[in-house]
Description:
This protein is mainly α. It has eight helices and two strands, in the order αααααβααβα. The chain has one domain: Orthogonal Bundle (Recoverin, domain 1), CATH 1.10.238.
Amino acid sequence: MRIEATHRVQLVFSLLDADGNGVLEARDFDLMAGRVVAAAPDSDEAAHGAMRDAFLRYWTTLAAELDADGDGRITFEEYTACVLSPERFDAAVDAFARALAALGDPAGEGQVSRPAFVALMTAIGFGRANIDALFDAFGPTPEDRIAVATWVEGIKDYYAPDKAGIPGDHLVDTAAV
Ligand SMILES: [Ca+2]
Ligand SMILES: [Ca+2]
């Protein structure tokens, strides 16, 4: 695995551990879903429901694939096995990426404004400077918007173990991991 991907995996584990108790559990995904949905007040119930469903699916997929000792919690050691077979998570990550990006586009225009992007990424737990750097790397329009499809692809690349030098690397503060 690329070192950049290792850093991305470490960061995403720390963020997914929404209650900060050091392991991933169903509760973390409930918490995170609530925070993210609350950050998208202009989106409709269907979009909120899709996001909650995507977080639930993300958890059930992780639990089915990675909870090696079957105790209902995923430790960091268990989590790192995700990089050995990333294709097992493609469908869950794809659903997650689409649901998240859709929340950034409540009017269905195919574009996400910087304020909407910042609100959602802050809810997930990324740092503001990293969020702005990522948005800039996605090549915003003169109106400071990015395409929904660009964000979806960026999220999927973030989880790819063989990628380096991608926009998502802006989310990782390598001095801190
Ligand atoms: Ca936790
Ligand atoms: Ca476990």
